[in-house]
Amino acid sequence: MTSDLSSSSEDLQPPQQDTSTPAWLGSITHILRLAVTVAIISLTVWLLGDVLTVIFAATLFAVVLHGLSRILVKHLRLPYGWSLSIVSCGLIAAVVLLVWGSGPAIVSEASRLQDALRQQEASLRSTLEGNPTGQMILNYLPASLGGHQGGGNSSLASIGSRIAGSMTGIVGSAFGAVGTVVVILIAGLYFAMSPSLYANGALRLVPVAQRPRTRELMLRAGQTLWAWVAGQSLDMLVVGVLSGLGLWFIGVPLALALGVLAGLCNFIPYIGAIMGAVPALLLALSLGTRETIMVAALYSVIQFLEGNVLAPVIQRHAVQMPPAITILSQTLFGAILGFPGLIFASPLTAALLAIFDGLTPPLSDDERV
What backbone phi and psi angles, to 5 degrees, belong to 149? Predict the structure, then answer.
């Protein structure tokens, strides 16, 4: 009788509910957190893109100073402070000697280059407008390049003319850019003077449990940036010297300015090679078909050697990035941050790839495609 009553009372009790969180609810929470994080990062980049670009440029300059100073510490057994002072004074002395010795010549040749490109611009436009094929080309070109697409009243603003104009007119028409460069140099110097101070300050913003992993990722990103800068600097030097000597041998005027321009533009992989070749080709058009073909062949040979001989040697000790990722990153950061994003797209992508490589486990042999 008692057992019957107990069994009936158990039947009357409500069933116990499962208090554990369902798996699908945890997945939705994770997705929402990820979406909110991506939205906050995107909004920050959109609102503070210019500031973030300056911070990254200063960090990149600090990485250069720190890397060169570490070389002196390793080989000369000097304290880090003395090494940084020697590197800073050496860079200042190199810039002063360059400006004092070759600055007037470079500025003069750059000004002549701008004038020559504008003359070639007018000549090329009149040639295109003088025949049906040229008019068809102008009809399909956007207005920003002097075509009729989206408005036909704008003058032909070729890529080479833009580059030459930005190089020669930065002091007079873009004083804000000079101020930004000064801020980048000063901030980068302070970053290099006490890198641990700023790195530890950034680590304090991270939860305690994630600090060891974050520290490892920061060191990995710094080493990657130094390797990229070292390799790209050597690549720029070789391309600039070969371009200047080749143009001088062919007989193209303003070979010094064009060589410096080719080296500077090569800071931007792939796209920079085209930007550096366009002004030389436009100047060669005024000399004749033979010179134009020789200049085109010169830049083709230089880029072939750079891509198949120099770059593989550099990438053994530096950073190896897939070409498709490099070009897509230039398109993405250029669209978000403008021309500064295009300039710093490759080192920024290299650092992000290093962080991504540290966050994700490597693929096993069975998982590879």
Answer: -75, 115
Inform me whether the pLDDT recorded for 153 exceeds 50: no
Biggest CA pair distance of the chain: 117
pLDDT tens, position by position, 111-143: 766 776 677 667 777 776 767 776 666 666 665
Distance of CA 155 to the CA centre of its chain: 29
What the block records as the tokens of 149 is 């697409």
Exposure string of 241-268, with b = 16+ CB inside 10 Å and e = fewer, is: ebbbebbeebebbbbbbbbbbbbbbbbb
Better pLDDT: 190 or 315:
190
The pTM for the full model equals 0.69
Using DSSP, state whether 142 is helix, strand or coil.
strand
Tell me if residue 47 falls in helix, strand or coil: helix
Separation between Cα atoms, residue 201 and residue 204, nearest integer Å: 5
> In this structure, are residues 160 and 278 in contact, taking their beta carbons and an 8 Å threshold?
yes
